[in-house]
Write a structure and sequence with these properties.
2 copies of one chain form a homodimer. By secondary structure, chain A is an alpha+beta fold. Chain A is 41% helix and 17% strand. Chain A has helices at residues 2-16, 21-42, 78-81, 129-133, 212-228, 245-256, 262-274, 300-317, 320-338, 368-388, 398-413, 431-440, 445-457, 467-479, 483-499, 535-541, 543-546; strands at 48-52, 56-62, 70-77, 91-111, 119-126, 150-155, 160-163, 168-179, 185-197, 243-244, 285-287, 293-294, 414-415, 420-421. In chain A, strands 1, 2, 3, 4, 5, 6, 7, 8 and 9 form a 9-stranded antiparallel beta sheet that branches. In chain A, β2 (56-62) and β3 (70-77) form a beta hairpin. The termini of chain A are far apart.
Chain lengths: 548, 548
């Protein structure tokens, strides 16, 4: 009852003025935080553990026609590898055949003489052939060098089993002898990878006559999603291993059309709520280790997407109790966002504090039209959620506000002559501006379709830099009835990754630049990245478009 | 009964001929081996574990007047160190104040922001300041580089506790930040060293008016011995961590005059017996890990010293049961050794197989006179052992053989004119030839004293290269009544190490060459080495010489 009362106060405050809002919010969070974290803990899914073994011996070969200039070729049978001399061959690479995430153990043994001294190996765990071929040092990347998965291990004696303490994500392991005694030779006698995920098999299957490339995209997408579904929806099991709201959204969509593990979505929604800032603003992402905690950063687009996830979760699971429980969190994101609207309902780019807007990994991409579109979309989603919960009276001013925002969008961001949305001082035309405006329903589907087509046909237009960006473009194309274009784009983009050998889909993919990285080093990119799994969602949700 | 019968057969075979000896020996070993290993396991001492903490922050400073060119100076208070920023100061060194052996753990934490990425540190564990100051790579040593105690660790998040899997031995730990996130700073919040030894306090104490330097030598010797007394007498806790017969001998002597842990001596005697080669020859050394097993090498001087240890053990402990049990092992070493005597009783340097003769770490040291002396000494010790066990009838030919050997020594190895023993084609005069001949009682004590003095006064004479070699010289000097010279030598040699800052005594020490190493790198030398602990034995056994 007290809760309801507070919500009522919120909803009044949203439209009547903002005095003392944060104090009220703090009260709600003080009351609910522990309860939400408890529910998150209760929903934690058990991990399914499976022992995996390498299936062959490979070598990394430089090849300018291969993705990033490297490929692997078979170098021997795996049975040949066990008990092979590291004195004869200092470096050997084993291939697990697919991407796994978990705990790696390796047993080393002597060949011939017994051990009389410690031995040292370097182990390099690679998602991609480039990580096998290129040296990690000197490192010029912008993120911690320690994300790169190489470890130096000392065997005090042999036989000896090394277990790498940190969880790893890889397909290949390079094993390199660094130091040994002249008195005895050494080999690997066993390898065990305890692979983990909270899911195993998709609940859905494709029409038998689905195009083989679409089938392959679906398979790789499922693998990507499975690897990222651990005890939270992670962004990437190699890096950052964290729950980001943006990734959560796309993973939850794909999960609804595959593994259907609703408990994980519920857990993540509660975790984010339980770890919100004292003011009620959600952190962009949280870590689970050593104990669940929020990272400092706030990203306004992600805050709003939380509401969309909650809405989708309710539609998928029917779990009204959770949605009601977390409704105050959604309201609070609205409160935060509306602070950024000017009197005409346009996003004010000068308003402080300026939160990071994610949207995509793309240099020079102007985000003004996109945030305006996303806010409009999310406000509408939040209103739909309120209706499902019978709470529309609490946010009854929303439809009026949404209309005001659309009007402002048309007035300030739409170039009628060209039939596209433009963004920023340079009137940038980007795929994403059109996509977010389409999703916001600011114009009619026909107008939006035209805007999308105009942008796509313009070689100067700013195209997305990441699968995350492409997701919203495809969703918008489908929404505007451009299913064929959506299908072509998926085949071009995700099909491109498949053709370039992806076992799982990548964090960053630019068809024109193999080595693009937002971190100044393609080695530190994540090559199994959650926000890239959404073909699973599209293919399974829209069989008429993709399964033919 | 059956055992006795076999021994009787042995003793007859020794002097009547060697046909089929090895077959008989194999039978004894087949019968006893498991029983001996069981007794070794039963005698395994519990390790005493104590948590140790660093006591100050130091830095390594280049100083040409310091041993090996490096010294440590205090750089701060230890409380200051905890929570110090590694971003401000990439490398910090903590000092435990004394040498410890055991398991090292270190807890890292964040400073300010929470962790968003893994962090990487390099930890270098050093017995000596030079190990802190000099880079380990490129490494040119002759033993495995992996003995050097540096480890690279990855913290997946913080706070995080790293425990180094292998056991370490050190006084100092250098902690070096290799890779971090730009987003947060990191510090050490706790360090725990679980130090182990099977002993704690010496049972004996020195006369209060003992010379302060002798007191200090005794203290450092006790520390050396304690560190090497784990679940076997190890040679060195940093390297090789193994039970060598030569080290066992000196450690058992020092133990008898300090910690008096007879169980450990018993365990080692049984382990060596249980792991003898099928022919009954003892291996020079054994490892305990992963399960007790012998290294391949055989060293004839060490085989014979086993008999001396067994004799000393019986005298110290009164444990006749063990001595009787292991008597066949002693007989078997006699059998092996006598094969190397020619008809005149002189050691035949051409006889195959040529086993390694340890004696000392010293280039160009000729071992002929020394092995002749050691064999004579060990045969006599074995005969004394037989008498204590009432088994002299089983080796009744020994006194006659010993006399024959002494006669041969006088004839072929003694230079009457100079009054010294000479060795090898170049008639080398060495301290050790005189020492071993003195211990063998080949000449009168007066003649031996003269031989020792002549060698010591000869600047061209080959002096020992290791504390192990010096031990026998000092023992010989005392035996010949040259207590003052023995005392002076200990003060010169072990006192020299103390003055140069030894916390524990070193494997190799040449007063004229700080960086001498038998392994082509002084960094790989062991600086807490068992065979260097014997001042404890001398000082406590001979109070009239040393405690005044």
């Amino acid at each position: 009852m007290k809760n309801r009362l507070l919500i009522a106060i919120f909803s009044m405050l949203i439209f009547w003025g903002n005095n003392n809002i944060s104090a009220q919010v703090t009260d709600v969070y003080k009351q609910q935080r522990q309860q939400w974290l408890k529910k998150a803990a209760e929903a934690k899914p058990p991990l399914i553990k499976q022992i995996k073994k390498p299936i062959s011996l490979v070598k990394a070969v430089k090849d300018s026609s291969a993705y990033q200039g490297w490929k692997t070729v078979k170098a021997g049978d795996i049975n040949q590898f066990y008990r092979s001399s590291f004195k004869q061959n200092n470096v050997m690479i084993v291939d697990f055949g697919e991407h796994f995430t978990g705990t790696f153990s390796c047993t080393f043994d002597t060949l011939g003489n017994i051990s009389d001294a410690p031995v040292r190996f370097k182990l390099t765990f690679a998602e991609m052939p480039a990580e096998l071929g290129e040296p990690f040092d000197p490192y010029h990347g912008g993120l911690s060098r320690a994300w790169l998965q190489d470890e130096i291990v000392t065997l005090p004696y042999a036989p000896y089993t090394v277990t790498i303490p940190r969880r790893l994500a890889f397909r290949y392991v390079k094993i390199e002898l660094l130091a040994a005694s002249s008195y005895f030779d050494v080999c690997v006698s066993d390898i065990n990878m305890e692979a983990t995920s909270c899911v195993q098999e998709s609940k859905l299957s494709l029409a038998p006559d689905t195009d083989p490339l679409i089938k392959e995209i679906n398979r790789v997408g499922l693998s990507t999603l499975k690897e990222c579904m651990q005890t939270v929806y992670e962004d990437g099991p190699k890096r950052d291993m964290r729950l980001w709201i943006g990734d959560l959204y796309l993973e939850a969509l794909a999960n609804a059309y595959s593994y259907q593990n609703n408990a994980l979505t519920k857990r993540c929604l509660y975790l984010l709520a339980g770890l919100a800032k004292p003011s009620g603003i959600l952190s962009s992402n949280i870590s689970e280790v050593p104990t669940p905690r929020a990272q400092n950063s706030v990203t306004l687009d992600y805050c709003l997407l939380y509401n969309v996830v909650l809405h989708e979760y309710l539609k998928t699971s029917g779990d009204k109790e959770t949605a009601e429980d977390l409704w105050p969190v959604a309201v609070n994101q609205l409160l935060l966002a509306q602070e950024y609207l000017n009197n005409e309902g346009l996003y004010d780019t000068a308003k402080q504090p300026q939160y990071w807007l994610v949207f995509d990994w793309k240099d020079n991409f102007d985000r003004h039209a996109s945030i305006q579109g996303l806010m409009t979309f999310a406000f509408n989603e939040t209103y739909q959620l309120a209706k499902l919960l019978g709470k529309e009276s609490e946010v009854k001013e929303l439809p009026r506000l949404i209309n005001k925002m659309k009007k402002a969008s048309r007035k300030y961001l739409y170039d009628k002559k060209q039939g596209v949305f433009v963004s920023g001082q340079d009137k940038q035309i980007s795929y994403l501006s059109q996509a977010w405006m389409a999703l916001s329903e600011t114009l009619s589907p026909k107008e939006c379709a035209k805007a999308l087509q105009t942008a796509i046909q313009n070689p100067e237009a700013c195209y997305p830099g990441s699968p995350y960006g492409y997701h919203y473009v495809i969703e918008a194309l489908i929404k505007c009835g451009l299913g064929e274009t959506a299908r072509d784009m998926m085949i071009y983009y995700w099909g491109g990754m498949v053709k370039k050998g992806a076992d799982t889909f990548w964090e960053v993919y630019d068809p024109n630049d193999d080595c693009r990285s937002p971190y100044n080093s393609h080695l530190i990119n994540s090559y199994c990245h959650a926000w890239s799994c959404t073909p699973v969602y599209f293919i399974n949700k829209y069989p008429d478009i993709f399964q033919k």
